Amino acid sequence: MIEKMEQSSGNIIGYKMIGKIKKKDYPPMVTELEALVAEHGEINLLMDMTDFKWEKVSAWGSDAKLGKEFRKKVNKAAFVGDKKWHNMAAWLGQPFFANEIEYFDIEKSEAAWAWLQEA
Question: Which burial class, exposed, middle or buried, applies to 94 when counting CB atoms under 10 A from its CB (0-12, 13-18, 19+)?
Fold first, then answer.
């Protein structure tokens, strides 16, 4: 499941990745991102991976399409997690997902939001 986070406002939006992500989880997020881009031009995105388990193979195409569609529209992306591989996923996603990506340990999630708000 992909759940929008309450802290989202303006051109900054956050999502919590929960459990196993499926292909059907992407369309609502894409619709929200399209609306934000239409309104603001570019966005800053936070992805909280602390409850993320895995992405089903059937969702990989939707994930890749998301990156391709929004790559030049996501100025900053903050990945928040609590596992070493979360940091690696953020690092690997940089060329495909956003102009700038930073990883934050869960204890520093407030710093992630602050980083996204910086001009």
Answer: middle
Check if the beta carbon of residue 15 is closer than 8 Å to that of residue 43. Answer: no
CA distance 67 to 79: 14
Could you report the per-residue pLDDT of 42-79, keeping only the tens digit for each? 999 998 988 877 666 666 656 656 666 666 788 898 98
DSSP 102: E
Confirm if 46 and 13 have CB atoms less than 8 A apart.
Answer: yes
Burial of 10 (0-12, 13-18, 19+ CB in 10 A): exposed
CATH of residue 42? 3.40.50.10600
Look up the domain containing 44 and give its range.
2-117
